[in-house]
Design brief:
Layout (H helix, E strand, L loop, with lengths): L15 E6 L8 H4 L8 E9 L5 E7 L2 E8 L1 H7 L4 E11 L5 E10 L7
Antiparallel strand pairs: 1-6, 2-3, 2-5, 3-4, 5-6
Length: 117
């Protein structure tokens, strides 16, 4: 019985999105620009270090301001390993009225995947 799976491959238009929370928001420039950031805004990620646990740590920048750090762990680490700069999009903001936000979620999109065997 042939089910048609002989030519299995990933579609060219395949995109994988990873949703992560930004850490250490109060340690950087968030207080100066929190009222300018909205869901859908673009942010850039720059590789900073590999943690003691082997996680990839990226610094999150909005224009020229540092917002905080993200950690890429587990299976997702193999996708982003070796990439120094990424683009991401603000997915969600958690805040209280008249106060700076206390949570920021961003969506990272991987368009090319490594084949691991």
């Amino acid at each position: 019985m042939n089910l048609g799976f002989k030519d299995f491959s990933i579609s060219e238009g395949f995109k994988l999105k990873t949703l992560v929370s930004v850490e250490e928001l109060t340690n950087y420039d968030m207080i100066y620009i929190y009222h300018h950031i909205n869901p859908g805004d673009k942010v850039s990620l720059k590789f900073e270090e590999e943690s003691l646990l082997g996680d990839l740590v990226y610094m999150v920048h909005y224009k020229s301001f540092k917002l905080g750090k993200i950690r890429v762990t587990g299976v997702m680490k193999s996708i982003y390993d070796g990439i120094n700069e990424l683009q991401a999009e603000v997915a969600g903001i958690s805040k209280q009225k008249f106060l700076p936000f206390n949570g920021l979620d961003i969506s990272i999109q991987a368009e090319a995947m490594k084949m691991v065997s």
